[in-house]
Design goal:
Helix content: over 70%
Number of strands: 0
Number of helices: 4
Radius of gyration: 21 Å
Largest sheet: none
Structural class: mainly alpha
Oligomer: single chain
Order of helices and strands: HHHH
Strand content: under 5%
Distance between the termini: 78 Å
Shape: flat
Length: about 100
């Protein structure tokens, strides 16, 4: 069965995007020699879930209302921690100051 429909090409593009985004995130972590933390896991989740919702909606596996609910929930999840986010630089300064208090000399 030849793949000729636009829906099939969009699906293939989304699957390729999912794969390449995983490779890019893990490659960046390896190149910078950093570990995989909570923010990285969030990014990976978003990069996989958004295309997956698109594929399922495109193939009518999800109804319109379900798709809208999932996108709304994902948006709420993404924006929920924005106000309380503190870059790691602030935490390391506090730890350095606290660590130097008891030292003599």
């Amino acid at each position: 069965m030849p793949m000729e429909t636009t829906k099939d090409w969009i699906t293939i593009a989304l699957v390729i995007f999912m794969f390449l985004s995983l490779v890019a995130v893990y490659g960046e972590r390896i190149i910078t020699k950093k570990g995989i933390g909570a923010r990285t896991i969030q990014v990976i989740g978003v990069l996989l879930v958004i295309p997956l919702i698109g594929i399922l909606a495109l193939h009518k596996v999800l109804e319109t209302q379900t798709t809208a609910t999932l996108i709304g929930a994902l948006t709420g999840y993404l924006l929920s921690g924005v106000g309380s986010y503190e870059p790691s630089g602030k935490n390391s300064k506090k730890q350095n100051n606290a660590g130097g208090v008891g030292k003599a000399g």
